[in-house]
Amino acid sequence: MSILPGIYASQITGHLVTGSFDSIATVSPTSSATVTFSSIPSTYKHLQIRILASVAQTVNPPFNWLVTFNGDSAANYSRHRLQGDGSSASSYGIGSQNYFELSYINGSLTTMNAAVVDILDYQNTNKYKTTKSLSGYDANGSGFIVLNSGSWQSTSAITSISITQNSGGTGLYAPNTSFALYGIRG
Amino acid sequence: MAAGSTYTPIATYTVSSAQAAYTFSSIPSTYTDLVVVINGTFGAFNTLFMQFNSDTSSNNYSDTGMNGSGSAASSYRGTSGNASGTGGMGATRSTTILQIQNYSNATTYKTTLWRANSPSDYVQTGVSLWRNTAAINSITFTANATTFQAGSTLTLYGITAA
Fold first, then answer.
1. Which residue in B32, B28, B10 sits closest to A6, CA to CA?
2. Residue A121 in 3-state DSSP?
């Protein structure tokens, strides 16, 4: 195994030159159901959010994360989902929603829910904003794997991102939960 | 907000002659997440298996996956196995990308998100669980009933959160 001082590499959003993927901020929530990244720098081309969370949940798991941009809670979001539940694959699309959805979150203190979300060209004021995500959990006999694509019908540059639990969430994140924001230079 | 350049190449390996498996060993514990990028071919399409820390017999691995064959979409589940299935690779150059988050903590089970693309066979994605709280210090990739072909590359990256 050779150790590399630095090379061209590929990752989930394309080819990457080392030094172009920056850690911006990390939030490790406990009691709050909502995580917010605010004052997002305007100096990157794309953003990536990496989530790993476990939730103490007593009411009807699994539930979803709901994502909004710049405090916009109006019906300006649309999304498509492709998901596998271990026995079948299914898909649906929905428009004019008040959020972009990440799914599903399992209520368990030992099984971690993971998500990687890409927000493309977030600073561009000439286009709507596109997101794509891969998320899921496995609990040895249950679980979901989900691909989501989303659109925020706004030409505003994204300056803040809020991620909250839907109505089934209690807000009790367990230790080792983290929401990390990264910037990708273009 | 703090900012820091990350996504650091840790190691890479290029297969020189057909081999059944490869292990990234002595993985530093200093990162937050690991990303593995595998670009290569198998002798024939089959499953790419992943194991951590030489754990080959604990029945601690499980998966939930989703396939697109070109004619149908399906989902599957594996439970209490000796390895995680992370999609397949075929005789046409294939790519698998794996996201292993918070790999060095010693408190939680380890979850991996992955996507596998074998152009002549399937497009797949899934989530795998290793029911062990140990920090990950090695990762073994095995070609099921076949071999990695010469020219295949396996690269390990580390990502550090702010």
1. B10
2. coil
Q: What pLDDT does residue A13 have?
A: 38
On whether the CB atoms of residues B149 and B10 are closer than 8 A, the answer is no
Which tokens is A130 given?
Answer: 């596109």
CB interface of A with B, residues 11-30, below 8 Å = 11-12, 16, 18-26
Measured between CB atoms, which of B64, B99, B161 is closest to A23?
B161
Q: What is the pTM of this model?
A: 0.92
The interface pTM score, or ipTM, of the predicted complex is 0.95
Q: Are A97 and A40 in contact (CB under 8 A)?
A: no
- A180 chain-B contacts, CB cut-off 8 A: 32, 161-162
Expressed in angstroms, the distance from the first to the final Cα of chain A is 30
Closest CA to B14 of B155, B115, B158: B155
CB-based contact B77:A145 (threshold 8 Å): no
pLDDT band at A19 (very low <50, low <70, confident <90, very high): confident
CA distances from A10 to A1, A95, B148 (A): 19, 33, 20
Residue B50 has a pLDDT of 98
8 Å CB contact of B79 and A140: yes
Question: CA angle B149-B153-B156, nearest 5°?
Answer: 145
Of A12, A40, A143, the CB nearest to B97: A12
Size of interface A-B (CB pairs under 8 A): 196
Q: Residue B128: beta bridge partners? A: B63, B112
Question: Quick one: A18 exposed, middle or buried, by C-beta within 10 A (0-12, 13-18, 19+)?
Answer: middle
